[in-house]
Design brief:
This protein is of the alpha/beta class. The chain has 14 helices and 17 strands. It has helices spanning 80-93, 98-114, 128-141, 164-178, 199-212, 224-233, 240-246, 266-274, 283-288, 296-301, 320-338, 347-352, 356-362, 393-403, and strands at 2-12, 15-27, 30-35, 47-57, 59-65, 117-123, 144-148, 150-151, 185-187, 190-191, 216-220, 256-260, 277-281, 307-308, 376-379, 409-414, 417-418. The strands form four sheets. It has a seven-stranded mixed β-sheet. A four-stranded parallel β-sheet has the order 5-6-7-9, with helices on both faces. A hairpin with a 2-residue loop joins strand 2 (15-27) and strand 3. The longest helix is centred in the last third of the chain and has 19 residues, at 320-338. The protein binds guanine (GUN) and fe (iii) ion (FE). The site of guanine has 11 residues, from helix 1.
């Protein structure tokens, strides 16, 4: 497969790698190289001609809640704990109804496709049947996803609740049912957060992760009240991270995605960066729920694979450039108020945190280097840039991030194959 256009990606977070009017060649879905002129052995093969358009890696949205999709833009006058109780749990509860579930799941998957997020790590609800449906619809869609049935057995609304035994048994049934079924769609252990999981539940989820070598996703250090309540529930633990770590849910045997990571002690920062933990910056969610600003720079400097994600419906925008831009802006406010300009996140770093870093959780996606899967988007910015002939590829690309939208994405390719709208 050969495609021609202006190719831009972030091999390193500090800078863009740019190939003007070049050919990307993939064999069996894997990138073989990028060439100014087509090499001898590929002459005569069909070329997909996208001259003047941008060819960029597809996004990975590594943290979002599918059953909160219809809640986008609702409840943003509340902070986390009230927001969960009043808006979030009542909405997630509706996924007991399979008709409702299927309707929302198809919309979420279509919109992920539209936004160019071809990989995602998704929280489902606590419901076994609805979670199976979400997994199966992702399998049909051609998109790649980790899907987790949420486990919660306490400190939740009375009507949205599960006994430990039930939750663990359902989680294990789902793991076994889909084990090895799909290269693209896999299950993930999903303790909602320490507040809603008893120690027994956490321990048994850690055991499942160990036994089946399945990664974990959860929330960490998001909000003052949350942290205070958490530590009152687990007084014998040293800090919030220690609760997950001692229960084998913190990137020791399997990778672990931890959303937010805003208020980390020094010990926790060290643990996050030593273990295989993916800290996730969710700027829009953190602004909406007044949670705070993650110190992305500190974790990046320690080598942690910091990602940027939508956290629907804490965040309200599925299109990841909205999150990238806000994440960058919030880093600048942090830098200003702390008078530490090393905290500023650069544009290329923002993009890297929504492509290459989260992509590494899935394998070789999120960059267009040799050996990576040919997962990319074709982007046409001609309708948003009037003086387009004066603009460099990097300028066109950054203008798309700031003033463009998903409407500028013309085509999506997964492993070198054009991916059509799923539903
Ligand atoms: N902490 C526990 N559950 C949630 C959730 O659904 N969204 C966010 N932002 N934080 C959480
Ligand atoms: Fe979340």
């Amino acid at each position: 497969m050969i495609i021609r256009g202006d190719i831009i990606f972030t091999e390193r977070k500090e800078e863009y790698t740019v190939y003007e009017d070049s050919h990307l060649i993939a064999e069996e879905g894997i990138i073989k190289g990028i060439y100014k002129n087509i090499p001898e052995e590929h002459r005569g093969e069909e070329v997909i001609d996208r001259r003047g358009k941008l060819i960029v890696p597809s996004f990975t949205d590594i943290h979002l809640h599918a059953p909160q999709y219809l809640n986008r833009g609702l409840g943003t006058d509340k902070e986390l704990m009230e927001w969960l109780k009043i808006y979030t749990f009542p909405e997630e509860e509706k996924f007991r109804n399979m008709e409702y579930a299927e309707k929302v799941w198809k919309k979420v998957i279509n919109d992920l496709w539209e936004c160019g997020s071809l990989h995602s790590a998704v929280f489902s609800s606590i419901h076994e049947k609805a979670t199976e449906k979400l997994i199966e619809l992702f399998m049909v869609s051609g998109l790649s996803a980790y899907v987790g049935k949420v486990n919660m057995d306490r400190n939740t609304n009375e009507s949205y609740f599960e006994e430990v035994e039930e939750g663990i048994a359902a989680t294990e049934r789902i793991i076994r049912k889909y084990e090895g079924k799909s290269e693209l769609v896999r299950t993930i252990i999903t303790p909602r957060f320490a507040i809603t999981c008893s120690e027994d539940s956490l321990k048994r989820q850690g055991e499942l992760s160990d036994q089946y070598r399945i990664p974990v996703q959860s929330h960490l250090n998001e909000n003052f009240k949350e942290i205070e309540f958490t530590m009152s529930l687990f007084p014998e633990y040293e800090n919030y991270s220690d609760i997950y770590n001692k229960n084998n849910l913190f990137g020791k045997n399997a990778a672990s995605i931890m959303a937010h990571c805003i208020y980390n002690s020094e010990e926790e920062v060290e643990l996050i960066s030593k273990n295989n933990v993916y800290p996730v910056y969710c700027p829009e969610s953190n602004a909406n729920l007044m949670s705070g600003i993650m110190d992305a720079r500190q974790l990046l400097n320690l080598g942690a694979p910091v990602c940027i994600a939508s956290d629907i419906s804490g965040g309200h925008s599925l299109f990841l450039p909205r999150q990238i831009v806000l994440g960058i802006q919030m880093s600048k406010m942090k830098a200003r108020f702390e008078n530490d300009f090393s905290k500023v996140i650069k544009n290329s770093e923002g993009y890297y945190m929504a492509t290459k870093n989260p992509g590494s959780f899935f394998g070789k996606t999120g960059s267009l280097e040799i050996g990576y899967e040919a997962n990319f988007l074709v982007v046409d910015v001609s309708d948003i840039i009037m003086d387009i002939e004066k603009r460099s590829i990097t300028e066109k690309f950054e203008k798309w991030l700031y003033i463009g939208s998903e409407k500028n994405i013309q085509e999506r390719y997964m492993k070198g194959r054009k991916l059509e709208k799923p539903f």
